[in-house]
């Protein structure tokens, strides 16, 4: 356990903050920044099984060269001058128009981050009297948007990816709320296409069918967060909604640039009306300085890679190496006690592979620390980021990861499990001796 913070308390505020942090420390859930590192593969001795740089574009010499070339050619690259409502940069406006076309959407709104986009959308679009339902694993940014919205007391979770649970919730809400039945009020369903902590895919087709069935007045709306699918799934990396041809059945889609696209910022794809509404009411768009121009150019250059097909090989590579990891784990973890290492059922069974592979363990921190000593970075994830009892290390795969690196990772995990098992046996023996000596 890290040193207690008590000694530096000098005011009542300090004392309260310290006490709360110490309580987290005692429960082993205090968050800390990891060691500073360069995360890109190739720039470090550490093997990255952690970052969201799924396509390894952050270390792509092609992307870097193209970006620098565009920067050199651009008339302005520094700053942005203020909020979009104060200075509507040409680069910002052009990227929005380009992405609306690329994703086949009537309109698009650029945000500084996916966090801001979710907060902006959910805080202002649902109106008083509307209802919102969301997958229980929905991202924190959606929760924060809901908290600031007019539906904060009318937001309900359904079980993760469960159509029966969604149906039961909708049935209950429709029974209780005649205004939803008549179409006077609206119901919003918020999901992610690929969940970041579990690597599970949302059953988007079934969800759209359910919404259509329950809301024949067309007052049920789906919003899909594609943060972790962007660049990897769908034609030209346009995401799962595009892959499944559901564009017309979704009210809004979110694509973020900070993960597979090695940039920053995000785009909400939606109708012209919603775009206009957000420009008027989305506070995380209005009251913030927009992305600096260099960041817009960076995102634009990453989209060049998607649009001209350069990134498609990266997408294939990351899915191939992810499949290899899953196959290895399915085979090699069979004999390991499940409290030490276990694959969740969907990773055991599914044929649909993603770059996110959680491995459940009751001891994520020691496992992560052990892997680090072997030169590999895979961060532990515990409550409150995931539900209690669902601790894990989350392995994130990248286009630049090799099969040899996967072998090293799997070997490392097995070695750790073996040591833990042996330590448990020793402890049990000591326990027996102690008990015997007491008798
Ligand atoms: C599902 C999901 N939505 C939204 C965000 C926020 O995106 P950004 O990192 O661009 O703020 C994240 C990233 O943490 C995410 O995982």
UniProtKB/TrEMBL annotation:
Q: Which keywords fit this entry according to its UniProt record?
A: Pyridoxal phosphate, Transferase
What sequence ranges are listed for the domain Aminotransferase class I/classII large? 45-411
InterPro entries per record: Aminotrans_II_pyridoxalP_BS, Aminotransferase_I/II_large, AON_synthase_class-II, PyrdxlP-dep_Trfase, PyrdxlP-dep_Trfase_major, PyrdxlP-dep_Trfase_small
Q: Does the keyword Transferase apply?
A: yes
Query: Required cofactors, per record?
Result: pyridoxal 5'-phosphate
Q: Which GO terms describe its biological process?
A: biotin biosynthetic process
Under the heading PROSITE patterns, the entry gives: AA_TRANSFER_CLASS_2
Keyword rRNA-binding listed? The answer is no
GO MF annotations for this entry?
A: pyridoxal phosphate binding; transferase activity
In the UniProt record, the signal sequence range is: none
Q: Which family does it belong to?
A: Belongs to the class-II pyridoxal-phosphate-dependent aminotransferase family. BioF subfamily.
Q: What is this protein called?
A: Aminotran-1-2 domain-containing protein
Q: Which organism is it from?
A: Favolaschia claudopus
């Amino acid at each position: 356990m890290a040193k207690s913070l008590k000694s530096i308390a000098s005011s009542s505020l300090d004392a309260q903050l310290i006490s709360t942090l110490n309580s987290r420390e005692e429960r082993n859930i205090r968050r800390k920044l990891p060691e500073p590192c360069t995360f890109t593969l190739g720039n470090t001795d550490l093997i990255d099984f952690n970052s969201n740089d799924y396509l390894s574009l952050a270390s792509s010499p092609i992307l870097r060269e193209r970006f620098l070339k565009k920067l050199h050619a651009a008339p302005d690259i520094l700053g942005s001058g203020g909020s979009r409502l104060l200075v509507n940069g040409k680069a910002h406006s052009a990227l929005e128009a380009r992405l609306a076309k690329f994703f086949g959407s009537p309109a698009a709104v650029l945000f500084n981050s996916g966090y801001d986009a979710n907060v902006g959308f959910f805080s202002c679009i649902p109106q008083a009297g509307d209802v919102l339902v969301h997958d229980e694993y929905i991202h924190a940014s959606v929760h924060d948007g809901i908290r600031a919205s007019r539906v904060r007391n009318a937001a309900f979770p359904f079980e993760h990816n469960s159509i029966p649970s969604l149906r039961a919730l909708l049935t209950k809400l429709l029974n209780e709320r005649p205004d939803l039945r008549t179409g006077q009020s609206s119901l919003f369903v918020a999901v992610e296409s690929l969940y970041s902590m579990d690597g599970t895919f949302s059953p988007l087709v079934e969800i759209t069918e359910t919404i259509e069935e329950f809301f024949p007045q067309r007052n049920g709306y789906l919003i899909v967060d594609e943060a972790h699918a962007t660049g990897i799934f769908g034609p030209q990396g346009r995401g799962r909604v595009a892959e499944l041809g559901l564009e017309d059945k979704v009210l809004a889609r979110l694509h973020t640039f900070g993960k597979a696209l090695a940039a920053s910022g995000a785009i909400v794809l939606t109708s012209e009306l919603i775009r206009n509404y957000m420009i008027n009411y989305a506070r995380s768009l209005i009251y913030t300085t927009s992305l600096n121009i260099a960041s817009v150019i960076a995102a634009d250059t990453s989209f060049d890679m998607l649009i001209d097909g350069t990134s498609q090989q990266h997408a294939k590579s990351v899915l191939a190496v992810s499949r290899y990891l899953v196959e290895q784990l399915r085979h090699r973890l069979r004999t390991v006690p499940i409290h030490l290492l276990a694959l969740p059922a969907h990773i055991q069974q599914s044929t649909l592979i993603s770059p996110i592979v959680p491995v459940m363990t009751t001891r994520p921190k020691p496992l992560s620390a052990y892997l680090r000593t072997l030169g590999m970075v895979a961060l532990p994830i515990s409550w409150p980021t995931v539900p209690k009892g669902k601790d894990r290390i989350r392995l994130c795969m990248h286009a630049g990861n090799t099969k040899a690196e996967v072998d090293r990772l799997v070997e490392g995990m097995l070695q750790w499990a073996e040591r833990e098992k042996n330590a448990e046996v020793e402890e049990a023996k000591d326990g027996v001796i102690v008990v015997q000596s007491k008798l």
